[in-house]
Amino acid sequence: MDEQRAVAWTEATWLNPPLTVEPDGADLVVSTRDKSDFWRLTSYGFVRDDGHALLTSLPAGSAVEVTFLAVLDELYDQAGVMVRVDEQTWIKAGVEMTDGTPHLGAVVTRGHSDWSMAPVSEYAGREVTVRASRSGDAVTIRARCENGPWRMVRLAPLAPEVTAFAGPFCCSPQREGLRVRFTRFVAGPADAALHATPDA
Questions:
Q1: Count of the separate structural domains present in the chain
Q2: In terms of residue numbers, what domain contains 52?
Q3: Partners of 128 in beta bridges
Q4: Is 194 within the bounds of a domain?
């Protein structure tokens, strides 16, 4: 992706600040609050909107990338990128622990949440980058492990006229104290085409 710029951690704003936030050189290390989560109604019947997200503006025609390291070892531990309009309209995408294995997936919420995922045991304990690209009436989510190839995760609708924000997120629905090291947060132009592969 050309013309990337680093987003300073202090430039973005926390939605539900984590238990701890610790700058460590260029990285940001956060610890989650107890039973933090983002979910809306589907199947479980409850609404949770107390996960942690560090958000900056995501105007139409732009993209963000978030890179992180985390030991996901409890059920539903998760980290990645969030795209947020309001509490009923959002996307979270990244890596989540379920069925004893890390899964790459996304939850798209428009009134009700859905959930798609695929196992990625090879991602365990390794640096992951998740990219959200907003173009036209859609957000394209891609991810990669370290310097591996980009993998398509999700194409989801997002009205071009709405105001949206995006950035790193994490939560731990079953516990307190998931530690996530965010190593990179950059913004830039949206992908040129749906099947374009962003530059490293």
A1: 1
A2: 5-189
A3: 68, 145
A4: no
**Has residue 34 been placed in a domain?**
yes
| Per-residue pLDDT tens digits for 32-67 | 999 999 999 999 999 999 999 999 999 999 999 999
**Residue 198 domain-assigned (yes or no):** no
3-state SS of the chain is CCCCEECCHHHCEEECCCCEEEEECCEEEEECCCCCCEEECCCCCCEEECCEEEEEECCCCEEEEEEEEECCCCCCCEEEEEEEEECCEEEEEEEEEECCEEEEEEEEEECEECCEEEECHHHCCCCEEEEEEEECCEEEEEEEECCCCCEEEEEEECCCCCCCEEEEEEECCCCCCCEEEEEEEEEEECCCCCCCCCCC
Contact 31, 179 (CB under 8 A): yes
Two tokens at 126?
Answer: 């390794």
In a domain, 60, yes or no: yes
CATH of the domain at 45: 2.60.120.200
Q: Give dist(CA 185, CA 24) in Å, integer.
A: 14
Residue 64 near residue 7, CB atoms below 8 Å = yes
pLDDT digits (tens, 9 = 90+) for 86-119: 999 999 999 999 999 999 999 999 999 999 999 9
Quickly tell me which residue has 């959930």 as its tokens.
Answer: 115
Which of 95, 86, 111, 96 is CA-nearest to residue 163? 86
pTM of the model: 0.96
